[in-house]
Amino acid sequence: MVLFMQVKISDRPAVDLSQLRFENTFVAELPADPVLVNRPRQVHNACYTRVEPTPVAAPRLLAWSDATGELLGIKRPAANDALAAEVLGGNRLLPAMQPYAARYGGHQFGHWAGQLGDGRAITLGEIIAPDGRRQELQLKGAGRTPYSRTADGRAVLRSSLREFTCSEAMHHLGVPSTRALSLVGTGESVVRDMFYDGNARPEPGAIVCRVAPSFVRLGNFELLADRDEHAALRRLADYVRTNYFSGKSIEETFQEICQRTGELMADWMRLGFVHGVMNTDNLSILGLTIDYGPYGWLEGYDLEWTPNTTDAQGRRYCYGNQPHVAQWNLARLAEALLPLIPDQAQLQAGLTLYADTFSAAWQRALAQKLGVSALDQPGDDALVGELFRLLAEQETDFTIFFRRLATPTLESLQPAYYGDLPSKELGTWLKKYENRTKSEIGRVERMRSANPKYVCRNYLAQQAIDAMEQGDATVLERLLLVLQKPYDEQPEHEDLAARRPEWARHKAGCSALSCSS
Ligand code: AMP
Ligand code: MG
After folding, report:
1. Of 356, 373, 438, 509, whose CB neighbour count within 10 A is largest?
2. What pLDDT score was predicted for residue 511?
3. What's the pLDDT score for residue 205?
4. Which of 205, 207, 38 lies closest to 117, judged by CA?
5. 218-226 and 230-244 helices cross at what angle (nearest 10)?
6. 3-state SS of 276-291?
């Protein structure tokens, strides 16, 4: 008889950053750009260009994620650890790091944009984490690369802090996401025109160390296909399926990408997360939330809401459109894979699987949000339909409503309303809801584990930014702590679960944002 045991690949104790052992499979297994000149240019027949971070004036560690540190088996550096700040600020490379910028393209707002690539992100290398999984460490804001086009390769503190905070918050909400290890202030300023109104001004610069098994996006495949670089396309497909999809065939890998993306969209929708810029270069091949820019969380429930002021006209990437856009994006990936998968039926099957996965996951999520074991009874569709109609009619905070629905009374739900509570209609609906759920066992527990109390609201992130710009890290530290347990009550932090205050409704960064970062 054979006994199978769960073997932990390595039980190495946490080490200092400087003791990490780096590997570089992306660099070793994929075609490199033979040109090493670091200036903006078109690159051919390559998946990446070797490029080093540009040093910054005075790197200083502003924030650290213990959860990501633990994932990687790295000890939290002391606040004054100069080596850590230098490595994470891009001023010093550790032995065996082979930094690179990836080459990719993408469809932006529905139009093919040609070559984009890592214009300010530079991967330092890969490590094998204590759980045996490979993780890439990447600095965002680390300086110019051949893919920077006309931009400066840098990032401002406000957008970096937002990415740092939300990637960790997403993970703790149970949503697949790229992670963030550190936030480093560069001691340099970066000039940005935040409102796109001709008033550029210097802002503090920062660098986030992002972490993911892979940062490959749909756009990495699209660019190679667009340029008819089929040998490189095949190598990228082989690299991805071998390293991240257990050696499945390309067909099966595409289908799994579709499935993971379907699950991800259900997660975003159940939580009221709006990514804001779902271009194909901002969708991960691993089904992770990636590239946090002008994202937001639904406050008033509104299918057409987008936090991205750049998209206010077309609303292509608004809350209610996300599942549809994801499928549109996957169709672009399917086209890019045609040279490798001539059987279109296989690709069509993937797109259908996306739709089926999303529908099933969304139905499950709705059931959980309402605290029922399944939405399978006559009248359930009408009950859900009426609820969403009600939520849209009066400005209702999505997060607070579902959290407080665990106690289904008008009084309990009052704090979810930005204006008047529709007592009559809501009262009628609550009676139906109580009737429907009276024999459901475990309703409240189910709801508590599906409806977070705390999300990374834009105005909370903005308060952390304002404080950090004044040299005060405590606001961010408290926010990070609370967002680590988003489904817990944490009554001492009740103020962070409140409705967006009225002063924040139209204040820059507190609800809507531009793409400036
Ligand atoms: P995004 O919409 O932020 O994901 O970025 C789209 C493209 O623009 C990517 O290729 C980025 O690398 C590039 N990009 C954005 N900001 C900068 C910057 N400040 N410097 C260089 N490239 C940038
Ligand atoms: Mg991007």
Report:
1. 509
2. 86
3. 98
4. 38
5. 160
6. CCCCHHHCECCCCECC
For residue range 270-279, list pLDDT tens digits in order. Answer: 999 999 999 9
Task: Give me Rg for the CA atoms of the chain.
Answer: 23
**Nearest-CA residue for atom 6 of ligand 1:** 116
Helix orientation angle between 322-337 and 344-370, rounded to the nearest 10 degrees = 160
- Pocket-forming residues, ligand 1, beta carbon under 6 Å: 116-120, 147-148, 151-154, 277, 282, 291, 293
CA distance to 36, 63, 252, 336, 357, per residue, from 142 (Å):
17, 17, 36, 30, 37
Expressed in angstroms and rounded, the spacing between residue 480 Cα and the centre of ligand 1 is 26
| pLDDT of res. 3 | 46
- pLDDT for 252 equals 98
What's the confidence (pLDDT) of residue 367?
98
Please choose, from the candidates 291, 273, 36, the residue with its C-alpha nearest in 3D space to the C-alpha of residue 159.
Answer: 291
pLDDT at 2: 44
Minimal-distance CA residue to ligand 1 atom 18: 153
CA distance 327 to 321: 10
How far does the centroid of ligand 1 lie from the alpha carbon of residue 151, in Å?
8
Q: How far apart are CA 428 and CA 217, in angstroms?
A: 47
Q: Give me the pLDDT at residue 30, please.
A: 98
Nearest to 72 by CA among 139, 15, 9, 7: 15
Q: How far apart are CA 350 and CA 354, in angstroms?
A: 6
Ranges under pLDDT 50 in the chain: 1-7
The pLDDT value recorded for residue 485 is 98
For residues 451 and 134, is the Cβ–Cβ distance under 8 A? no
Q: What is the DSSP letter of 511?
A: S
- Kindly give the distance from the C-alpha atom of residue 118 to the centroid of ligand 2, in angstroms, as a whole number: 8
Say whether 281 is catalytic: yes
pLDDT at 8 (0 to 100): 52
What is the SS3 assignment for 380-446? HHHHHHHHHHHHHHCCEEHHHHHHHCCCCCHHHHHHHECCCCCHHHHHHHHHHHHHHHCCCCCHHHH
Specify whether the CB–CB gap between 168 and 61 falls below 8 A.
no
Q: Are 511 and 460 in contact (CB under 8 A)?
A: no
Of all protein residues, whose CA lies closest to atom 14 belonging to ligand 1? 119
Which residues make Cβ contacts (< 8 Å) with residue 32, sequence separation at least 6? Answer: 46, 47, 48, 49, 50
Q: Angle between the 230-244 and 250-271 helix axes, to the nearest 10 degrees? A: 70
Selected catalytic residue, list 81, 118, 267, 281: 281
